[in-house]
């Protein structure tokens, strides 16, 4: 199928815009690479330290230096349900490496914050910056230069983007990402949302709420809604860093273990010591990132990736911007209805055909670069397939189904849920922002109402509980940007705003903060930039100003006379309470150095 013209145009302009920076990056990783294992250049004491704790067989192989050695970078902890299954993975990977004639070592660990635990708490103000910490920790892990390739064990929100940024700093090495899969389905997502709203209204107590949450998040694996964690998995597959069909196989199953072993073997096959050398810095090119944005739109994925994809691309010397997201949204249809964009969870998506059907259909419609690289070998052209075990328990791939198994969850491009993607970019006298439209009813894509001003989500919640949020309004929650307080997710705003919307009020959210990847039915203009703490226009808003959010037109306006607007002095806020405690004082250098949201909100 011929590539869609708009996708080709956007890719070409990204490549042109990035040319010099990308060339410097490629020169750097070329200088760092080579067919001889780096560890053979180490001094004898250095090399002896690197294999001192290995068993006799691995020690002998590493001592000779002529076999590939695989570095394992792991985000394992057993508090985070998605990462608990990783406890078993290093031994699976070591055994697979030996079978393939190589070795494997845990190179290092990186932190793994659970945003589900820190939502609405002070720790959430470290969440976005944990991505940078993970990238730095990845660099420390790989700095020993004893590895010929690396595998990355990470799934959740900031963890995968941080691992990708760190991997790209060692872009001369092949990299394979290994998921652990989603937990099995628990309490239906719409029922969980209903009980959250009842709790917000005071109609059920904490015991009922906790029971619903515990039935939703009940075992090992990724949370089953389509938030940032599961969007990460989709991205790693559509960008060629997973094996085909690996993203959504449940943990602790024979198929999951087989995919883990095969991923380790593929990583070893891609080293410079063999015939398929595939450095990750070359694999992740402009085509791969455009494919990622296409996947984001087609699935209605997490708004967090309007930050993360920009930051990841920059680490590869590629300048991706929000206009690229906006232009691609115009030609990429929405093909999935997964909570919060529907009632189904990712297990239902996987059963309906999952990534194999999705990628096969997008490839057939000319909406993906079929020649983009992959760790499976060659390109992603063969990713319209799904894995399974044959009668002997061996891993095999078969073509994905030609039709969706459930048209209420997954559709082809010929009959999409909507003709355009699930995200839009807004512009106007309030700056820039992004809005997720895929879960918002069409009649709420345009909201015009007076502003209600808050400087924290706690202020809004208090106003809701006091019954002060009457009539139609746009809730402006500002001083929540990366420079102000680390740009926390404001997911706790959704239940009260959802309650008001269900009562018939026309409400929306406008913020320089983030929302969870689970943001849903309330229209929300988020990631507003410039942020209030930098004197951005959002800080000029006053209580009662008329605000218009128009997603179809891509506009975000304060309907204030131009002369009055220009004369206003931005308000300021006392942010000291967000700068100390729970480790926040350690992140002052991050807040001082961080870029704007449209540039990825990164310190690099």
Summarize the structure.
By secondary structure, this protein is an alpha/beta fold. It contains 22 helices and 14 strands.
The main sheet comes to: 8 strands, mixed
Mean pLDDT: 94
Count of DSSP H/I helices: 22
Question: How many strand elements?
Answer: 14
Provide the gyration radius in Å: 24 Å
Written description of the protein model:
The chain is of the alpha/beta class and about 600 residues long. It has three domains: about 5-185 and about 220-400, no CATH class; about 185-220, no CATH class; about 425-600, 3-Layer(bba) Sandwich (Glucose Oxidase, domain 1). The chain contains 22 helices and 14 strands. The chain has helices spanning about 5-30, 45-50, 55-65, 90-100, 115-120, 125-140, 160-170, 190-200, 205-215, 230-240, 255-270, 280-285, 285-300, 305-315, 320-330, 345-350, 355-365, 455-465, 480-485, 495-500, 560-565, 590-595; strands at about 70-75, 105-110, 150-155, 175, 385-390, 395-400, 425-430, 430-435, 445-455, 475, 505-510, 525-530, 545-550, 555-560. The protein has an eight-stranded mixed sheet with strand order 7-8-12-11-10-9-13-14. Strands 2-1-3-4 form a four-stranded parallel sheet. The protein has a two-stranded antiparallel ribbon with strand order 5-6. α7 links the parallel β3 (about 150-155) and β4. α6 packs parallel to α7 (about 160-170) and α7 (about 160-170) packs parallel to α14 (about 305-315). The two termini are about 40 Å apart. The mean pLDDT is about 95.
């Amino acid at each position: 199928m011929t590539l869609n013209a708009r996708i080709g145009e956007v890719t070409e302009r990204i490549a042109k815009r990035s040319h010099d920076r990308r060339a410097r990056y490629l020169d750097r990783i070329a200088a760092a690479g080579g067919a001889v294992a780096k560890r053979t250049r180490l001094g004898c004491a250095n090399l002896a330290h690197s294999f001192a704790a290995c068993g006799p067989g691995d020690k002998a192989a590493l001592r000779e230096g002529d076999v590939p050695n695989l570095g394992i970078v792991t985000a394992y902890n057993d508090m985070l349900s998605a990462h608990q299954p990783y406890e078993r993975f290093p031994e699976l990977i070591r055994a697979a490496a030996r079978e393939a004639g190589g070795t494997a070592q845990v190179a290092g660990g990186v932190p793994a914050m659970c945003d589900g635990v820190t939502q609405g708490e002070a720790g959430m103000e470290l969440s976005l910056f944990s991505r940078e910490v993970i990238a730095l920790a990845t660099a420390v892990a790989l700095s020993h230069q004893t590895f010929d390739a690396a595998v990355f064990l990470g799934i959740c929100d900031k963890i995968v983007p941080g691992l990708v940024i760190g991997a790209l700093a060692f872009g001369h090495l092949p990299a394979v990402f290994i998921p652990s899969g989603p937990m099995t389905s628990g309490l239906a997502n719409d029922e969980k949302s209903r009980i959250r709203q009842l709790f917000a209204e005071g109609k059920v107590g904490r015991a009922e709420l906790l029971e619903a949450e515990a039935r939703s998040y009940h075992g090992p694996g990724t949370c089953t809604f389509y938030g940032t964690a599961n969007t990460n998995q989709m991205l790693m597959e559509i960008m060629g860093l997973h094996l085909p069909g690996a993203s959504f196989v449940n943990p602790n199953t024979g198929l999951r273990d087989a995919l883990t072993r095969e991923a380790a073997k593929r990583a070893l096959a891609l080293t410079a010591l063999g015939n398929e050398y595939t450095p990750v810095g070359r694999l992740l090119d402009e085509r791969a990132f455009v494919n990622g944005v296409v996947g984001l739109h087609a699935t209605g994925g997490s708004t967090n990736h309007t930050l993360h994809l920009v930051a990841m691309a920059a680490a590869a010397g590629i300048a991706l911007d929000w206009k690229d997201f906006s232009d691609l949204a115009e030609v990429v249809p929405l093909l999935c209805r997964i909570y919060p964009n529907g009632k189904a969870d990712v297990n239902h998506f996987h059963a309906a055909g999952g990534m194999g059907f999705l990628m096969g259909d997008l490839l057939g419609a000319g909406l993906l670069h079929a020649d983009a690289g992959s760790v499976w070998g060659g390109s992603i052209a063969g990713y319209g397939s799904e894995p399974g075990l044959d009668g002997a328990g061996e891993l095999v791939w078969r073509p994905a189904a030609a039709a969706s198994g459930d048209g209420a969850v997954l559709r082809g491009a010929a009959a999409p849920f909507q003709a355009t993607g699930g995200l839009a970019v807004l512009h106007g006298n309030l700056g820039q922002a992004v809005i997720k439209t895929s879960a918002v009813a069409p009649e709420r894509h345009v909201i015009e109402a007076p502003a209600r001003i808050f400087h924290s989500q706690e202020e809004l919640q208090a106003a809701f509980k006091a019954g002060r949020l009457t009539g139609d309004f746009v809730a402006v929650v500002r001083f929540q940007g990366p420079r102000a307080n680390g740009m926390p997710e404001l997911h706790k705003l959704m239940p009260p705003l959802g309650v008001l919307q269900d009562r018939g009020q026309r409400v929306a959210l406008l913020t320089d903060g983030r929302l969870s990847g689970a943001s849903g039915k309330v229209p929300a203009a988020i990631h507003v930039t410039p942020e209030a703490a930098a004197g951005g226009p959002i800080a000029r808003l006053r209580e009662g100003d008329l605000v218009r959010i128009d997603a179809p037109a891509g506009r975000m306006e304060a309907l204030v006379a131009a002369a009055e607007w220009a004369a206003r002095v931005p308000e300021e806020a006392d942010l000291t309470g967000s700068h100390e405690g729970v480790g926040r004082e350690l992140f002052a250098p991050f807040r001082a150095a961080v870029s704007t949201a449209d540039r990825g909100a990164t310190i690099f």
